[in-house]
Amino acid sequence: MHPVFPNLSKLLASRSTGCLPHLLLHGLRNFAFGLPSHTFGSTISLLISSLPVHCFPPTSTSSSQKPIQDSVMEERRHPLFVRFFENQHFQVANGPGYHVVSLYDSDTRRTVLVEVPNEWGWEVPDVEDPEFWVPLQKATAALAEHLDNLPHGTSRVKVDQARSVVSFDTDAERDDTFGTEYPLLTDYQLPPPISSRTVLRSELTEIRRICRGVDLVSYPPSLSPPQMGQDRNCFVFKYQPEDAVIMWKEIQMLARLPPHPNLVLLDRLVLDEAAMTQVVGFTMRYIPSKTLEAHRPPFKLKWLKQLMQIVDDLNLKHGIIHQDILDRNLIIDPDTDSIMLMDFNVAYRVGVGVTKRRGSAEEAEWAGRDDVKGVLVFLYEYITRDPALAAGFYDLSEVDERPLIDPAKWVKHPSVELDEVAEFYFELMAWVRRRRAAGGGGQLTHYTEAPEPLEWPSVKELEKQGRFTRYRVAARRSAELPYLSWRRPPSSKLDPAHRLLATGRYAGEEEEAAQKAMAKAIAVSRDNPLRKLPPIGRIVSSDDLPPIIIPEEPNHDQEEMGASCNVAGASTTKAGEKLEAGTTKAKSGAKVKVKAAATGPGPRVLRARPKGKRERDRDGDGQAGVVATPNSKAAKKRKRSGYSAKD
């Protein structure tokens, strides 16, 4: 019997809890820092410091796979390495009794709503008050304790003051997990050969979970030549299950930068396993070493020179500012004994300034985070161990670099192994002065002034076409519309006898899932002959599928997610029914007028407007969308204004 939830043993088979993996491994701060907190949801680092710390255990591998003994996957005991993220920027008051907190579980890649007691009633404390975050702390602690022992489909949990589970909900219709549409491979307009370097998500085998949206994976034998060796068949897989737009810029940049001995660039584009046309992520080379945050070897002068050259090449040759030169993004390649720079998720092209909004694929300049300053602050902290900078746990934009110019401050920490500090200081300062000199060629005003600027298509048009539309997975599932599932079993309950794929399914389940998907598509096609089945591997346009008629009813979800995602209760026309120009038959038999409400890949979603119902001017023709009978008041009014219902 479960010690906290006595009835749990009646609902679940008794299983060992194993390791509660509520802290992620090394690497999460590449996301937690450098991006606005709302990009991935607010981290709850300061709220779980009292929780027991466990890392993700290694993902089980088959007997044919050689375990990866990688030092970078070490357990981290800093509270930023968390499993759960708050999805919302505010506490949702559920009356005076309970608060509802929405948490994203990066281990199983799903959202869980947690109801916790509300002690304040309607008088919610200010966000600056520590008491405001108490429900979030309770919700996180409750999930860390119970989630892996609840059914895999649990979408809502209610706990009491003692964090004991009162009830839980497994109704798939109430699942609050979001998905996203992904851009097509052709949308990126990448040059060869990188445009042909692709791998399916279902071909990647999960080795280990690093942090939110980052896994260590292996390629299939067809993409890993024998000379590579099993111990070298390791790659970093980056993805975004809920917001694909934020990967657009990083993929474009890493794919277009030329090969560089000190940069970790894109290796392959990862495509969805269904249509094989959508880019759902990318892979990079894996370096089996610790970052300079996790391990600090005696720093070599040649590494400093390499780092300064990296920055010069990015800034002056390509017009790119990395904006995140920190120890967590620097690693020493053991094969070449060279320093490597990685993670371009906040990089931008000089002169391309936009507002910093949630989920934006556009580039933004962050004040006080230029790369020259990044190198200066990094080396100063590496040598002096200045507690004010706390081994990389600092915000670069808040550091004043002027005091660091003083040579008197460069006092080597006793634990640091280094040759003469003066040699490093003078080498660095000569470079800083050269880059800061006005008119000395150390600054660009626009990336197009660079000798080899990088260009890529704008993302704005794709956003308008619905390429990056977010949707509730439950809505797509209930309407039998295609969606990409990312859910996977918790790392504490993996089957060691089977390979887990990047899809979240075991190798044996993947083929079965594909067969079920095809059978469902065939069944839908049989019920509605107008719906064509696009051949595998072909780019699907909106004209390939028939419209889906959605009755015009008030729906708050529709306003939030867009008509293309609001498919609950959708109904299609009967097979063989004749469609008049601009009209169709609704299920009730009433004559309605329809118009497209979404563009982009997938079926066209049409909005059905019942007879005589008024609408806003959605098509920009200056007229409200009114469908009226010839003798109705609306028809007479339009006739007087020179507009008839027939128009």
From TrEMBL:
GO terms of molecular function: ATP binding; protein kinase activity
InterPro entries found in the cross-reference section: Kinase-like_dom_sf, Prot_kinase_dom
Superkingdom per UniProt: Eukaryota
Region (Disordered): 576-647
Entries under SUPFAM superfamilies matching the protein: Protein kinase-like (PK-like)
Secretion signal, residue range per the UniProt entry: none
Domain Protein kinase span(s) in chain numbering: 204-468
Record's protein name: Protein kinase domain-containing protein
Organism: Chaetomium strumarium
